[in-house]
Design brief:
Elements lengths: L17 H20 L2 H4 L2 H6 L20 H16 L3 H18 L5 H12 L1 H5 L19 H29 L3 H4 L3 H6 L8 H11 L4 H18 L5 H22 L2 H15 L14
Helix pairs in contact: 1-4, 1-6, 1-14, 4-5, 5-6, 6-8, 6-14, 8-12, 8-14, 12-13, 13-14
Length: 294
C-alpha cells in the first residue's frame, strides 16, 4: 500500500503508540530549547508590550497575559508545560496547552523560523489525538481510562495524523519549488553562499575543515542540486511504501542534522524530527524504548 494506509483494511488502526509520543515530545523540545537558551526579551521586546497583542485574534496570546515586568512568569509556565509534554503525563490537557503555547510563540515572538511554524501546526493537529488518548501518560502501553472510544473517533484521530503527513509533504514541496525560483539554487552556487554566510553560515573551524569541498567548482553544485533532489524525494515519500519511507526517514534526519552542523538550528531540527516521525514511521508499531512502560 501507499503512504496513506487503507483504513478499511483495519478494523482498529491503533495509533496511540510511542511513535506519536516521540513525535510530540520532540516538537515540544524544539520550543523548549528556544525558550531556555535565548533571553525572553529577544523574542518579546518592550516595543511589543507597548503595542499589545493583535486585536484580530480570538485566542489570547499566552506570553502577553502578564505585563512586561512579569515576562518570566509565562516563560517559566511555558517551560513547565513543554516539560510535561515531553514527560508524557496527562496528554488530554497538555496537548491543548502545548498548542496554545506554540501558537502564542509563533504569532507573538519577534524572531521565529520554519520550525516554530510547523511545530504549532502539528501541535494543533494533534489536539484530537491527545484528547482521545486513554492513557494517563503517552509513554505507557496500557490505557488508564476505561471508556469506550467510538470507532469513528479513532478514525478521526487517524485522519489528523494523515493531515500531518500531507502537511510535511507540502513543506518539502514548497521548499523545492521556492528554491527553483532562486538563481543561486539553479546554477548550483547556493551551498557556497549559505555555507559562508555571516552570521548564519558555518563556524570558522568548520569552514577551515570543509573549505576544500565548498570551494570545489564541481562538488559545490552537486551538493546544492543534491539538496533539491533530496527535498523533492522527501515530498514524494508521501506516495512511497513503508520500507522506502524508513529509508527516507534516515535520509531526512541526516539532512536536518547536517543543517545543525552548518547553521546551528537546533530548535528547527527537533521540530522537523517530530514531523518526520509522524510522516515516515508507522504509527501502529512500537519502538523499543526503555521509556515504553506498562
Amino acid at each position: 500500500m501507499g503512504p496513506i494506509e487503507n483504513y478499511a483494511a483495519k478494523t482498529d488502526p491503533y495509533i496511540f503508540t510511542n511513535i506519536y509520543a516521540l513525535a510530540r515530545s520532540f516538537i515540544a523540545l524544539s520550543l523548549l530549547v528556544a525558550l531556555l537558551f535565548t533571553s525572553p526579551y529577544v523574542y518579546f521586546p518592550s516595543e511589543f508590550f507597548a503595542i499589545g497583542q493583535p486585536s484580530n485574534t480570538i485566542i489570547p496570546n499566552f506570553f502577553y497575559l502578564w505585563r512586561e515586568e512579569n515576562l518570566l512568569i509565562p516563560i517559566i509556565l511555558a517551560c513547565i508545560i513543554l516539560l510535561l509534554v515531553i514527560i508524557g503525563y496527562i496528554p488530554q490537557l497538555t496537548g491543548i496547552l502545548h498548542a496554545w503555547v506554540a501558537y502564542s510563540f509563533f504569532t507573538g515572538a519577534l524572531m521565529v523560523e520554519g520550525g516554530d511554524q510547523i511545530g504549532q501546526i502539528i501541535a494543533f493537529l494533534l489536539i484530537p489525538v491527545t484528547i482521545l488518548d486513554k492513557r494517563i501518560n503517552h509513554w505507557h502501553k496500557n490505557d488508564f481510562f476505561t471508556y469506550n472510544r467510538p470507532e469513528w473517533l479513532t478514525f478521526f484521530c487517524y485522519s489528523c495524523l494523515v493531515v500531518v503527513q500531507i502537511q510535511m509533504a507540502i513543506v518539502y514541496f514548497f521548499a523545492v519549488s521556492a528554491k527553483l525560483n532562486v538563481p543561486e539554487w539553479v546554477d548550483g552556487s547556493a551551498f557556497y553562499y549559505w555555507f559562508n554566510h555571516n552570521p548564519f553560515g558555518a563556524s570558522a573551524p568548520l569552514r577551515a575543515v570543509l573549505s576544500p569541498v565548498v570551494n570545489n567548482p564541481f562538488l559545490t553544485p552537486l551538493i546544492t542540486w543534491g539538496v533539491l533532489v533530496l527535498e523533492a524525494t522527501l515530498f514524494a515519500a508521501l506516495f512511497m511504501t513503508k520500507d522506502k519511507k524508513r529509508i527516507m526517514f534516515i535520509l531526512g534526519v541526516s539532512f536536518h542534522f547536517m543543517i545543525i552542523i552548518i547553521h546551528g538550528l537546533w530548535s528547527f531540527f527537533f521540530a522537523m524530527l517530530g514531523g518526520l516521525i509522524i510522516y515516515l514511521l508507522p504509527w501502529d508499531k512500537q519502538l523499543n524504548l526503555r521509556l515504553w512502560r506498562n
